[in-house]
């Protein structure tokens, strides 16, 4: 089945630095990928939708200058948290749409736990 | 606004028994899809079952089945013969117009041996 690889699984960074999270579809082309944020014991909140070759669409309230999304190829989307602060600490999950699977073709990465110290 | 509501923050079931998790949603769209995902402690999202809104027949996947009531905008998940491995967070989700997926707040299921 479809596999989405997300790296790193855990990252600790210093406040003020930037960190990049990669989301890669391994065996299918993902023209659309989604980025979610999940707080402890909470639901997944959609941050943005990225489409290959175009600008990402951000949800209301998500700072696009802080959370930079790049979807430069059909298999890779990246989320860069710029000038990270402790309040950005969270669990980030990506999802890729595999149109070949029809409506059920949403595959999730294993997530990235970001800790900003 | 489109919303998904899971009114049960926590549920508990005895091993081998049956449990039903509730989910309601609000949309004016006619074309949409509904899902149940399981998130174990590893936090990997695992698809449990999905339902196309245009289909009247309730989806079934082994011990998991749904009760889809379109008029009532209800989409409950029934887990039969509960197993210890079923313990997890369960999220109800929908997709409108083949677009992004939105989730409910989740229900934490505990399975007692």
List the helices and strands and how they pair.
The complex is a heterodimer of chains A (117) and B (113).
Chain A: E1 4-7, E2 10-13, E3 19-25, E4 32-38, E5 44-51, E6 57-58, E7 67-73, E8 76-81, E9 90-97, E10 106-108, E11 112-116
Parallel strand pairs in A: 2-11
Antiparallel strand pairs in A: 1-3, 3-8, 4-5, 4-9, 5-6, 7-8, 9-10, 9-11
Chain B: E1 3-5, E2 10-14, E3 19-21, E4 24-26, E5 32-39, E6 46-52, E7 60-61, E8 64-69, E9 74-79, E10 88-96, E11 101-103, E12 107-112
Parallel strand pairs in B: 2-12
Antiparallel strand pairs in B: 1-4, 3-9, 5-6, 5-10, 7-8, 8-9, 10-11, 10-12
In short:
Chain A has strands at 4-7, 10-13, 19-25, 32-38, 44-51, 57-58, 67-73, 76-81, 90-97, 106-108, 112-116. Chain A has 117 residues and is an all-beta fold.
Features:
heterodimer, A: 117 residues, mainly beta, 7-stranded mixed beta sheet, 11 strands, globular, B: 113 residues, 6-stranded mixed beta sheet, 0% helix
3D architecture notes:
The complex is a heterodimer of chains A (117) and B (113). Chain A is an all-beta fold and 117 residues long. Chain A has strands spanning 4-7, 10-13, 19-25, 32-38, 44-51, 57-58, 67-73, 76-81, 90-97, 106-108, 112-116. In chain A, strands 2, 4, 5, 6, 9, 10 and 11 form a seven-stranded mixed β-sheet that branches. Chain A has a four-stranded antiparallel β-sheet with strand order 1-3-8-7, with no helix packed on it. In chain A, a hairpin with an 8-residue loop joins strand 9 (90-97) and strand 10 (106-108). The mean pLDDT of chain B is 94. In chain B, the strands form three sheets. In chain B, strands 2, 5, 6, 10, 11 and 12 form a six-stranded mixed β-sheet that branches. In chain B, strands 3-9-8-7 form a four-stranded antiparallel β-sheet, with no helix packed on it. Chain B has a two-stranded antiparallel ribbon with strand order 1-4. With 113 residues, chain B is mainly beta. Chain B starts with a strand and ends with a strand. Chains A and B meet through strand 5 and strand 9 of A and strand 6 and strand 11 of B.
């Amino acid at each position: 089945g479809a596999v989405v690889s997300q790296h790193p699984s855990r990252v600790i960074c210093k406040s003020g630095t930037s960190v990049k999270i990669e989301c890669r579809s391994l065996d299918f082309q993902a023209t659309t990928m989604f980025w979610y944020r999940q707080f402890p014991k909470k639901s997944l909140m959609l941050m943005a939708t990225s489409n290959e070759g175009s600008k990402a669409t951000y949800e209301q309230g998500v700072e696009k200058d802080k959370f930079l999304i790049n979807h430069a190829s059909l298999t890779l989307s990246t989320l860069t948290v710029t000038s990270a602060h402790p309040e950005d600490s969270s669990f980030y999950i990506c999802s890729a749409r595999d149109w070949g699977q029809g409506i059920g073709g949403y595959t999730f990465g294993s997530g990235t736990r970001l800790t900003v110290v | 606004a489109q919303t998904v509501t899971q009114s049960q923050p926590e549920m508990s079931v005895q091993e081998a028994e049956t449990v039903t998790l509730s989910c309601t949603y609000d949309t004016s769209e006619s074309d949409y899809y509904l899902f149940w995902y399981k998130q174990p402690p590893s936090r990997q999202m695992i698809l449990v079952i999905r339902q196309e809104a245009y289909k009247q027949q309730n989806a079934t996947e082994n011990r998991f089945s749904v009760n889809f009531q379109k008029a009532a905008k209800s989409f409950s998940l029934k887990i039969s013969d509960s197993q210890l491995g079923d313990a997890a967070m369960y999220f109800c989700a929908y997709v409108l117009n083949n677009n992004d997926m939105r989730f409910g707040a989740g229900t934490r299921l505990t399975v007692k041996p």
